Amino acid sequence: FTVSAGVHTGFPPDPFVRGRYRYVHPLGERTQFRVTETAYWEREDGFGLNNRLDWEWYYQPQTLIRWTGSATVSEVSEGVDWSSALTAFHQLDTRRALRWEAGINGHTEPDDDDAKIEEYYVNMRYRFNYFRSWLFFELQPEVAWPTDDYGNREFSMRFLTTLEIQFSRQ
Predict the structure, then answer these.
(1) Which of 4, 120, 123, 128 has the most CB within a 10 Å radius?
(2) For residue 151, is it left (φ>0), alpha (ψ between -120 and 50) or beta?
(3) What pLDDT sits at residue 124?
(4) Quick count: other Cβ atoms within 10 Å of Cβ 167?
(5) Cα dihedral sign for 71, 147, 65, 3?
(6) What percent of the chain has pLDDT over 90?
(7) How many angstroms separate the CA atoms of 70 and 83, rounded?
């Protein structure tokens, strides 16, 4: 069980507090099942609960395959926000890694039993360590098919960049 607090960057800043419980169950030498329950409060979303299930298979020492299913309910959600993804991680060396992911996300509505699919997506992420051991960059091209306001699928190409600075007591 862990408890954490912080502030999401942006304007205005979005403080949060969360408690998380994680249970990991080995299913063999190279496979495990994980359940993660998170209760949180954020200024924007209020109180919420997230339930996440992960199945992981270590295909090779440097390659991991993961299926993730997640469901979130919060004070601002109208029903359940859900997602599911299949992800492959591959470590190229100690400083570089690749990740491929295909997923779907959507929501349910309180008065309707049907799950609404908001988006299908496929992406690839290249992560690398640069200059310092605590500095990482990520480059991620993505193709997605979100639903527009009229329920039609659109084609969307995206490119995300991430700068990660790791802080440690070491």
Answers:
(1) 123
(2) left
(3) 98
(4) 5
(5) negative
(6) 74
(7) 5
Strands 31-42 and 96-109: unpaired
pLDDT per position as a tens digit, 1-26: 899 998 887 788 889 999 999 999 99
Both tokens of 118, joined, read 């908001």
What confidence score (pLDDT) does residue 133 get? 86
Is residue 130 within 8 A of residue 138, CB to CB? The reply is no
pLDDT bucket at 169, cuts 50 / 70 / 90: low
pLDDT tens for 67-84 read: 999 999 999 888 899 999
* pTM for the predicted model, two decimal places: 0.85
36: tokens are: 């993660």
For the chain, the structural domain boundaries read 20-165
- The residues, any chain, with a CB within 8 Å of residue 52's CB and separated by 6 or more, are 34, 35, 36, 37, 38, 68, 69, 70, 71
List of residues 6+ apart from 107 with CB closer than 8 A: 77, 78, 79, 80, 81, 82, 115, 116, 118
Which two three-digit tokens encode residue 33?
């099942």
32 phi and psi angles, rounded to 5 deg: -145, 160
Q: Which parts of the chain are beta strand (E)? A: 2-8, 14-26, 31-42, 46-60, 63-74, 81-91, 96-109, 112-129, 135-146, 156-165
